[in-house]
Specification:
Layout lengths: L1 H21 E4 L3 E7 L2 E6 L2 E4 L5 E8 L3 E11 L5 E12 L2 H6 L4 H18 L3 H6 L1 H16 L4 E12 L2 H74 L3 H16 L7 E2 L3 H16 L36 E2 L6 E2 L9 E2 L3
Antiparallel strand pairs: 1-4, 2-3, 2-5, 6-7, 7-8, 9-12, 10-11
Helix pairs in contact: 3-5, 7-8
Length: about 350
């Protein structure tokens, strides 16, 4: 019984192993390569698959999802003979498991070496400044070359990125100094422009203020002149409406004489010849008030005399004798001025 039992146990174990090898469960987004006696037979897709045990062999399981592979920094020489270290990241996806298995021994290593050589070719034709500012151009060039080369391997390169570009330390220091100088330059330019704008605005404000001030003064002068003209017109109309006689005018004339004598610098006072006429009219008015016969005083003022001032600041003068001829042309009475007559002078002292 024991040999039979052993045989039964062996058969059960073999059947279990065969069952396990017959049923193959492939996860989602994965594929498996099946070989029969060392030759490619078919590709197993996701799900439950049946194979011939001990004849079919599952050689390789491949992940069909997009993969991300970072590569270590690679030293690359630019066109201006500067060495920069560039880190790259590759995003790829297996589209043909059979080609990825049999067309290339290790597609990861192949992609890495192809990336390095292509990167050196692209960077070698660019200077440092172009390398630092042309990431998109470098990425597009890398992706085009890799996509063309890896297509026969069953690989699709979706994206290539430059993770870092590190120039030498000395170049970094120089770049920092240059950037600092550029920023200082821009700051100085902005400051100068601000000062210029401020000066322009200040000048425009002062100009507008001067214009407004001048306009205000002009308007004030016009209004002042209009007021003086209106006052003169009113006085003139009042005089003509009141029909003022020569006596009243002479009296008003004498009232203004003290104003002419005011001032610390007045050492000599020139009396016009019309003063004699005014004094004559005023003297006649005084004579009429006192009940005289209307005759004017006999004493006449000389042509040029020094008239003293009284304590009230008014000139102490004697009205000249005799009326002065009057020119009544066009009905307007006005004194006749004799060109040869001399003006009397008054010494305030």
């Amino acid at each position: 019984m024991e040999p039979v039992l052993i045989v039964l146990v062996v058969l059960v174990v073999v059947a279990f192993i065969a069952l396990i090898k017959t049923i193959q469960v492939i996860p989602q987004a994965s594929a498996a390569i099946v070989e029969r006696f060392g030759r490619y037979t078919r590709t197993l897709n996701a799900g439950l698959n049946i194979v011939v045990p001990f004849i079919d062999t599952v050689r390789n399981r491949i992940d069909l999802r997009e993969q991300v592979v970072p590569f270590p920094p690679q030293p690359v020489i630019t066109q201006d003979n500067l060495v920069v270290n560039i880190d790259t990241v590759i995003y790829y996806q297996v589209t043909d498991p059979r080609a990825a298995t049999y067309e290339v021994a290790s597609y990861i290593q192949a992609i890495e070496q192809l990336t390095v050589t292509t990167l050196r070719n692209i960077i070698g034709s660019m200077d440092l400044e172009s390398t630092l500012t042309s990431r998109e151009v470098i990425n597009a060039g890398l992706r085009g070359v890799l996509d063309e080369a890896t297509g026969k391997w069953g690989i699709r390169v979706n994206r290539v990125e430059l993770k870092a570009i590190e120039p030498p330390t000395s170049i970094q220091d120089s770049m920092e100094k240059q950037m600092r100088a550029d920023r200082d330059k821009r700051a100085a330019i902005l400051t100068a422009e601000g000062s210029r704008q401020a000066a322009i605005l200040r000048a425009e404000g002062e100009k507008q203020a001067d214009v407004l001030r001048a306009e205000g003064e002009a308007q004030a002068a016009v209004l002042r002149a209009d007021g003086e003209a209106a006052a003169i017109r009113t006085v003139f109309e009042a005089i003509h409406d009141g029909d003022a006689d020569q006596k009243l005018l002479a009296y008003q004339y004498l009232q203004t004489l003290p104003e002419l004598a005011k001032g610390d610098s007045n050492k000599l006072w020139i009396i016009p010849s019309e003063v004699g006429d005014a004094l004559k009219g005023l003297g006649g008015a005084f004579t009429g008030l006192t009940g005289g016969n209307g005759a004017s005083p006999a004493a006449a003022a000389p042509a040029a005399t020094q008239v003293p001032l009284d304590p009230a600041g008014r000139p102490s003068v004697t009205p000249p004798a005799g009326p002065r001829p009057v020119d009544t042309e066009k009905g307007a009475a006005r004194p006749r001025v004799e060109p040869t007559r001399e003006y009397p002078t008054i010494d305030p002292e």
